[in-house]
């Protein structure tokens, strides 16, 4: 698992909630964690490949200064299999190195995890770099800023030698369509393709990945509908904000993704009314539907959403009253309703939401006075 650490799209609140949700599991997982007694030291072939890799980098921050001496397993960011001494994890997060093209990393044939996030890489990575990485399960690549200086190239017919569980790409241009090779990856648990320049529709197979827990496709120009057969039965976190998704939400959304904790659809062209099945998402913590074209009255299903902390439905065209059953949202902290066509009396039951510290009613047309308790 990797927490989301880079500039989120949507809101800092979604980021905070996610940090809380995901914890720091990733940071734990990259500790070399070697047992001294069993330690066979680093495989010579891998040590050479790492030194070659270092040669090609501009390590002006000195981050790689620990990369000397015999036992590469003790070098910063390197993790080994303790029995074989082969490098299985390479965490190069943050060192601000340049030019990734020569990547002797491709010789680390036992590599399971490669983390090149929050860097200033430049150059062109191609499928050739990944030829030998048959065991790769996790790959993280991101740039500090969207400079478009790192490009990933692959042929349309490329079938990778690995089967990934996690891929997180941020601020790196991967082309305007969903890479065909990604569709060969059926074991994916986490996908983040944030601000990568995709302006395609989502391929059908992508919606059916059986193990997906975390999906972030935010800040692209992705078009099309969310199908009612998107079978993400294990999904916990879905970020699709800042795209061009359109049409209604699937009526059965609560049934096909019953474990959802975060649903972020902020800033799309979604329309029609809120499906009732959202009311059965008992683990839901954050619901962002703001800045779409939703219509209709707000549903009365809030009693089922005891964990909901953030409800953002601003900038739509909801009509009618604020339902009294919102008083059942005992965990609610942030409620954004502004810029809709809501009216009527503000329900007294909202007093029951004792954790509520921010409420934005914006254009709300009150019948009567603003209650004292607000
Ligand atoms: C893959 O492994 C072969 C044999 O060890 C090696 O010659 C080749 O350079 C490796 N490819 C890459 C991209 O590192
Ligand atoms: C969804 O996927 C699960 C697991 O692969 C499968 O058991 C189930 O039948 C699928 N449901 C639908 C509606 O396709
Ligand atoms: C929703 O948008 C689609 C186009 O994306 C349109 O065909 C449909 O009529 C709209 N539905 C409503 C209820 O506005
Ligand atoms: C919002 O809904 C109202 C009532 O249905 C309608 O009159 C109005 O045109 C809608 N506004 C927008 C911006 O869609
Ligand atoms: C709010 O609290 C009052 C008093 O504790 C209770 O009678 C009422 O049922 C609650 N309403 C809701 C919607 O939870």
Automatic annotation (TrEMBL):
Gene3D superfamilies: Ribonuclease Inhibitor (3.80.10.10). Residues 1-29 form the signal peptide. It is a single-pass type I membrane protein. Coiled coil: none annotated. Keywords: Glycoprotein, Leucine-rich repeat, Membrane, Repeat, Signal, Transmembrane, Transmembrane helix. Residues 44-81 form the Leucine-rich repeat-containing N-terminal plant-type domain. This is Leucine-rich repeat-containing N-terminal plant-type domain-containing protein. It comes from Tetracentron sinense. The lineage of its organism: Eukaryota, Viridiplantae, Streptophyta, Embryophyta, Tracheophyta.
């Amino acid at each position: 698992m990797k927490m989301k650490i880079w500039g989120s799209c949507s809101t800092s609140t979604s980021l905070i909630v996610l940090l809380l949700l995901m914890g720091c599991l990733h940071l734990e997982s990259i500790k070399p964690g070697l047992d001294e007694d069993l330690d066979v030291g680093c495989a010579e072939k891998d040590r050479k490949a790492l030194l070659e890799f270092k040669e090609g980098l501009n390590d002006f921050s000195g981050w790689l200064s620990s990369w000397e001496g015999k036992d590469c397993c003790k070098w910063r960011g390197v993790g080994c299999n303790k029995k074989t001494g082969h490098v299985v994890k390479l965490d190069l997060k943050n060192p601000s190195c340049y030019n990734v093209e020569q990547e002797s990393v491709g010789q680390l044939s036992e590599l399971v995890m490669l983390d090149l996030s929050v860097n200033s890489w430049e150059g062109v990575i191609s499928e050739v770099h990944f030829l030998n990485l048959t065991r790769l399960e996790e790959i993280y690549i991101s740039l500090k800023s969207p400079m478009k200086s790192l490009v990933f190239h692959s042929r349309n017919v490329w079938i990778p030698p690995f089967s990934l569980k996690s891929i997180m790409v941020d601020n790196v241009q991967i082309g305007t369509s969903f890479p065909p090779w990604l569709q060969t990856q059926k074991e994916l648990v986490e996908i983040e393709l944030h601000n990568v320049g995709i302006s395609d529709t989502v391929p059908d197979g992508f919606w059916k990945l059986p193990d997906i827990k975390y999906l972030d496709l935010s800040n692209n120009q992705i078009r099309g509908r969310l199908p009612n057969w998107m079978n993400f039965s294990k999904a916990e976190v879905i970020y699709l904000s800042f795209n061009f998704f359109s049409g209604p939400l699937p009526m059965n959304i609560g049934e096909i993704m019953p474990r959802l904790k975060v649903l972020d659809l902020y800033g799309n062209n979604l329309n029609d009314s809120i499906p009732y099945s959202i009311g059965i998402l008992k683990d839901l913590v954050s619901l962002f539907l703001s800045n779409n074209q939703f219509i209709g009255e707000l549903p009365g299903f809030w009693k089922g959403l005891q964990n909901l902390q953030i409800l953002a439905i601003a900038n739509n065209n909801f009509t009618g009253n604020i339902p009294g059953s919102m008083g059942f949202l005992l965990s609610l902290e942030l409620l954004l309703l502004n810029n809709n066509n809501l009216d009527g009396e503000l329900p007294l039951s909202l007093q029951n939401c004792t954790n509520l510290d921010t409420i934005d009613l914006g254009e709300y047309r009150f019948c009567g006075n603003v209650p004292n308790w607000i």
